[in-house]
Specification:
The chain has 147 residues and is α+β, with helices and mostly antiparallel strands. Strands 1, 2, 3, 4, 5 and 6 form a six-stranded mixed β-sheet that branches.
């Protein structure tokens, strides 16, 4: 019996899978989180952005909220690259913190079609590293502890 070499993913397959992830997980989680934030901040303007961070809340001061997955199924954890802040996000959030802005992070658990959200955790220059991918895993915060 001949052993077949593993075929590399094509660009077309990657694009297809990315669009499916956007349609099934990313967009629904952002839409429901935006509704929840609008309910929590009724007197403020909440908007979803296409950049970083994910949500901007306008009131007397501007607040920024980043949304991250914790679990995507009953026993399925999200990848570490998605659960924690990337290097680009870390730099952007550090810049916002140095400018004096309020920056928070919120995690969600997806079970079938329902989403459970954690409270918004305020980030500071002291606790930012606990939520970053660049930090060793022993020093990171486990998002499961936030629920």
């Amino acid at each position: 019996m001949l052993k077949m070499a593993k075929r590399r993913r094509t660009h077309k397959e990657s694009v297809r899978d990315g669009k499916e992830a956007w349609r099934k997980t990313i967009r629904p989680s952002h839409d429901k989180c935006e509704k929840k934030l609008k309910h929590e901040y009724q007197n403020d303007h909440v908007t979803s952005t296409t950049g970083m961070p994910d949500f901007v809340i306008f009131n007397k001061g501007t607040k920024f909220v980043e949304l991250k997955p914790c679990r995507l199924g009953k026993n399925q954890r999200a990848s570490f690259e998605r659960m924690y802040l990337s290097l680009t996000q870390e730099i952007t959030i550090l810049f916002l913190l140095n400018c004096g802005a309020y920056v928070g992070i919120r995690y969600y658990i997806k079970t079938e079609k329902t989403f459970t959200y954690s409270r918004v955790i305020k980030l500071s220059s002291k606790n930012l590293k606990r939520f970053c991918l660049s930090t060793p895993w022993e020093e990171r915060t486990d998002p499961d502890d936030l629920f």
